[in-house]
Amino acid sequence: MKAVKAICTALSLFAVSAFSHAWDSSVSGKISQIDSTTYGAYEIRISLENQPNICPSPLANFVYLKSTANNFKATYATLLTAFANDKAVSLYSNKDSAGACELIYVIMTK
Known about the structure:
Blueprint: H1 2-19, E1 25-36, E2 44-48, E3 63-65, H2 72-84, E4 88-95, E5 101-109
Parallel strand pairs: 3-5
Antiparallel strand pairs: 1-2, 1-4, 2-3, 4-5
């Protein structure tokens, strides 16, 4: 019985740690602009309405999405859908080595 209890406790801790993450930045709002370029490090740049400090960095007032990111197509499609339909999004990002904010997670809401 103690072994079962220990296994359940270990699985619970694993589940909690697997779904928890500390983001460097999280902001919500409607997308005001999407910039796309084939040159440079910040290929897809996203800005929100009335959010001049979307990224807590003096380097950028946007978050960016890399084309090499996992699940890039679905994430980019979600951003474009939200922009085209004037839907709110929540953007979660982490600072890269230069201090700019790389988009890691996006949620679109009604």
